[in-house]
Structure formats: C-alpha cells, structure tokens
Amino acid sequence: MHVSRPLVAVASSLALFGALWIPNAQIMRPKDPAPFKPVVKVSSLMTGLGGAAGKIQEAYRSEEEHRLKSLAAWSDVIAELSNVHMQHRRKPDYLEMADSTRTIALELASAARADVVDEMQLATLMANLDTSCGTCHDADK
Ligand code: HEC
Prior knowledge:
By secondary structure, the chain is mainly alpha-helical. It is 75% helix and 0% strand. It has helices at residues 5-27, 42-61, 67-85, 92-113, 119-140.
C-alpha cells in the first residue's frame, strides 16, 4: 500500500497532538468560579441568623464541656451569614451594619478559641453582637 508523505505527516502530527492534548485534558482545571451571588432573600438569611443567635445564647449559658467550641462554631456561622448578607442591599450604612455584625462575630469566635479565655470579653462581645443585630433592625423600621 502506498502512503503519501503528507498523509504520514498529518497522521503523526495528530498522534503527537493527541499525546500532548490528552494528558493536558486530564490536568485541566475547572474555570474560575463565577463571582459570588446570593441565591436567597435577606429574610431567609435572617432565619439562619435568628437560629444561630438562639444557638449561641444556648452555648454561652451552658456549662457543658464543649461550650466554647460550640460558641466559636456558632459565631463562625453568624460571621459567614453576615458576610453573605453584605452581598445584599447596597446602601452604604446597611453594609456597614452587616459588616459590624460580621466583625463582632469573628472577634467572638477568636475570643472563644483563645488559649486563655476571658469571660468578661466573651460577655462584652455577646452584648455587642446583640446590639449590632438590633441597630440594623431599628434602622430598617
Ligand atoms: C444590616 C442589617 C441587619 C443586621 C446586621 C441583622 N439583621 Fe436581621 N433583619 C434585617 C432585615 C432587613 C430584616 C427583615 C427581613 C425581611 O423580612 O425582608 C431582618 C429580620 C430578622 C428576623 C426576622 C426574620 C423574618 O422572619 O423575616 C430575625 C429573626 C433576624 N433578623 C435576626 C437577626 C440576628 C440574630 C442578627 C444578628 C446576629 C441580625 N438579624 C442582624 C436586617 C439585619
């Protein structure tokens, strides 16, 4: 059988292309994720924040062994929900208030995770957290 030179050239470059392309395809990463967009309304975030606020109070008052772990975990939840909340209304003061809740929740989480826990600091941050929720609710009326 006669195989023309150009045909051999095409076949070998296809083989080379395939050899290079297949391993590359295997290590190809998914595209960067799309910019973050919330998928639920503020009222649903508030259902989450309300639940987490109940849980954090419960943890704070409890005397069980995992009290601080639980306090830190629910503070994290409040911080992240507030972080998502900041993707909602665009009014600057609204964002600042959501940010303030987020900041206090993060402080509370690290205070609960400190090597030496300062109960006075926990009490202050718990009160500040509560105030930060109320400040925005009062402003929304
Ligand atoms: C930056 C503003 C803002 C902050 C901060 C904020 N909220 Fe809200 N919250 C709202 C708004 C706005 C509504 C009314 C939502 C609606 O009905 O659309 C609301 C409503 C609620 C509700 C009623 C939910 C419902 O049934 O609609 C609860 C519970 C709640 N918030 C809990 C909290 C807690 C707990 C915190 C603090 C950890 C908090 N919120 C912080 C803005 C805020």
